[in-house]
Amino acid sequence: MAVAAPARPVSRGRRVLYRARVLLREPTVLLGVVLCLALLYLVIAPLVSVFSDAGRVQYGDEARSGRHTGDWTGYYLWRVFRSPVSRLLFWEPLLHTLVVSAGVIVFALAVGGSMAWLVTRTNVPGRKFLAAALVVPYMLPSWTFALAWLTLFKNERSGGQVGYLQGAGIATPDWLAYGPFPIIVTLGLHYYPFVLLLFGNALRRIDAQLEDSARILGAGGRTVLRRITLPLMLPALSSAVLLVLGRVLGTFGTPYILGLPSDYNVLSTSLYHAIRDRSTGVASVLAGVIVLVGVLVVVVDTRLVREQRRFVTVGGKGAMDRRADLRRWRWPAFAVGMAVFLVSVAAPVLTLLLSTVTKTPGVFRADNFTLTFWIGEDIPGAVGFPHGVLRGSDLYEAAWNSLRIVGIAALVCGFVGLLIGYVVVRGDGGRVSGFLRQVSFLPYLVPGIAFAAACLSLFAVRRGPVPALYGTVTLLVLVLVVTHLPYSSRSGIAAMMQLGREPEEAAQVAGARWPVRMFRIIVPIQKGALVTGVVLPLVSGLKELSIVIMLTTSGTQLLTTLSIGLVDYGYTQLANAVVLVIALLSFTLTYLAQRLTRSSLASGIGG
Amino acid sequence: MNGSAPGRRRARAACAGLLALAASALAACAPSTSGEAGGASPLPSASVEDAASFKLDDLIAAAKKEGSVLAYDGSGDVKDVAEAFAKKYGIKAEGVKSKAAATAEKMTRESQAKNVTIDVNLFEDGPMLVGQLLPQRIVRTWIPPDLAPDIAEGDRNPLMMLMKAYVFVYNPKLSPNGCPVKNLWELTDPAWKGKVLLQDPLGKEVFTQWFTQLADHGTDKLTAAYDALGKGKLQLSEKDPAHEWVKRFAKNSPVLTTEDEDVATGVAAPNQTKQTLGLMSIAKFRDVEQKGFHMKVCEGLAPWTGFAYPKYATIATGSKHPNAAKLFVHFVLEKEGFALESGSGGVSGNKKVGKSPNNPPGLADWDNQLFRFVPGTMTDDFRERQDIKDFWRVNHR
């Protein structure tokens, strides 16, 4: 005993040291714990605060609920689920949400999936052009599709200018102008690039040798598709469905604009009404339901992916990539691609562009055209913005602010997303990995307005070591990072799932430490995913409106707030011009990213 | 990674327990996202400071020291007001147009965070002011002592800066013989189904307040107007004639928009070909000049051509520029500030300033043509708000 005693601490110390060394060499666990804590604070805490509001009496509702402010109550649950207005507040919107979500997913999968196959796996003419051009719809703010749709199709069931068709004497039926059909089409057109990007990435990574092997073994084309290609695509497919669904659940702009004339409400517009009315309790219940629906889908997704296990498509071995020869279908396929481009990009952009160069939108006479709204020195009578958008410093300041703030957020997002992907995949089914996978995606299912409101109340006040962040750019960046993390963590996870351990293990054998492995092996291989993980949040953040409106103080003008401000003042033409600038900026940035890194969104899809 | 089954189960249970603990701990400390206040407190009283000791010059000097002021307003005119204010006093001033609900939300947050940026709130949602912002002490009322003698007792708490109006408007190019409608009840006829435009009342509190005010103070005239139609006695299926009118109006498929601008465009744009009627703010008459719109107030509509609603001026309780904010309130109550806010008509809360001469065509007599909100029942308006919204929701087709 006396002899052994001094020896023990030494061995324990050594053991700890050894453990620490192992941890540092394979710091997945450490990294995972740090990430988990961060997400617990940034994601779970705001959510809990939202949910707790659903069960507590809010200021001003004392008389209705018969209790004091802050007491627990079932009043809001009753109002949303059982009261006489529950049908209008919840049940109908729920049904509509299901219809719209299903519609949009089918639409986006059909268009996005076929286009992804076209530009990655076939020799369709103009692949590079199509690959770049078909992503553009995602760069337009989603409400522009709704506005363009209304500009074309609206009839006398809504105010404002007469629609182009109506102006030409063609009466448009209500079902075409408002309600589920236009909502599904416009949202589908806006979100199919998600499917395109994710499928493109996955398709490109699939080793054509796998398919060849199956064929050599005698499998027919359909069997190859069913047994090889589709299972390999499943992570991308489930990612795509989730991404589209999450956005559809939370977007209120499009359903609001297109649904209002025919009283077509979905859950997100119901939530928007509640937040606008400042009925926090009802808003919390609705937000809770939306998150719940999303979580259900995530659970299903996890099951699916778990059952399919993982498929390594980038190993240490060589891979081949081959394109199908379309032969005489090459040009028809090109025509289809161009048609999608025309409908999803050219039509809305041209509609917007036309409106910015006409004095009275919708009137096409020579004397009605003008460039005043772009370059005019003086627009008579315009309050607060008396010149064309390209003049003065407002536009440039707003663009710089947007780039600066969203840019930082996107960079952080991209890198953290890849780290999360790394930990989730290397953590190998552990609890940390599961937690990270789910929680990093959660913000996506929370409608932006609800999340921003929650973050405001949590981080606006000084809490422990975290200072009050209200009105600071830091808070805006923080919320943008959290709300856009799902994009990059998804792309990070999907990419890491396909990357085998071999390359890294080889480096490890050669003596490379973790940071070296990360920056010399993982990052270069995952360059495409990393760029996607930065560009997606960037593009989405540039268009972000609801969060930005809530979190910016009047000093910081962003492009979207500038645009919506102009709408408020009734300067449609100026507002549309700013929207076009947003789209142009997003496109230029994506293009530059592609040129500089030589691998990006478009290269993830084709080239 | 492949622990034995019971071990894993135990770990899972422990994990779940920990998570539950963490969640409940978080729930306990999670702040309400709408504000923390114990019980509905009564409206704080607003008294006038000693007029004798008040000197405007002292206020100006103190305001100049503070350097800047930020004002929020539901109307874009505030930009011009801020500019004029800055020019007059040499104090940096910014005016931001923002919808009432958004302003209320933002001010509540700022007050919670103790980081107040909005100094002055020019606010048209009186019930919200009386029901939430004032009792929660997010904003307060300050009455300029030197102007107080000219401010009516009923307009002091909260302090009314001016009165504006929502009016029914028609397109004189399409019906040159005057307004096609003579009676509010005609708007509930099948002939006007889907032809009346207005902002969605669910998003525009002034409309819901109009409805509740009608129920409290306008039923006699509404009944009289129905009698004048010559269709016999009004058959009520709701509790009062106001609710009856709102119900029939809502069921007659009015066209709802998100902005007044869309109402004005839908009624009066040069290329419109169908006669419609729009309920819009008189501020939209600036489009007549700017965009060549054809619009005129529906003169002779019984019992009212629209309604006059007050806009209130309050100061953020936690303002970092309290004197500049006071000076701004003073400014909007004077002729210069009022003129900028009432380009197309209005009545100042300051009796000395009085009415604006720029009334839109067709609106000459504010006292008789417009239904006027009674400020004393705003607490009721606030209480009934949710019910009237549900009522609209259920009935709108």
Short note summarizing the structure:
Chain B: Residues 1-27 form the signal peptide. The complex is a heterodimer of chains A (607) and B (397). Chain A has 607 residues and is mainly α.
Give the secondary structure arrangement, pairings included.
The complex is a heterodimer of chains A (607) and B (397).
Chain A: H1 4-25, H2 28-54, H3 62-65, H4 75-81, H5 86-121, H6 127-133, H7 142-153, H8 164-167, H9 174-177, H10 180-205, H11 208-216, H12 221-250, H13 253-259, H14 267-276, H15 280-307, H16 330-356, H17 372-375, H18 394-426, H19 431-439, H20 442-445, H21 448-459, H22 473-497, H23 502-509, H24 514-525, H25 527-543, H26 546-551, H27 559-568, H28 572-597, H29 601-605
Chain B: H1 5-29, H2 56-66, E1 68-73, H3 78-89, E2 92-97, H4 100-113, E3 120-123, H5 126-133, E4 139-140, E5 160-170, E6 196-199, H6 205-217, H7 219-228, H8 241-251, E7 255-257, H9 260-268, E8 277-281, H10 286-291, E9 296-297, E10 306-316, H11 322-333, H12 335-341, E11 347-348, H13 366-369, E12 370-372, H14 378-395
Parallel strand pairs in B: 1-2, 1-3, 6-7, 6-8, 10-12
Antiparallel strand pairs in B: 3-10, 4-10, 5-8, 5-9, 5-10, 5-11
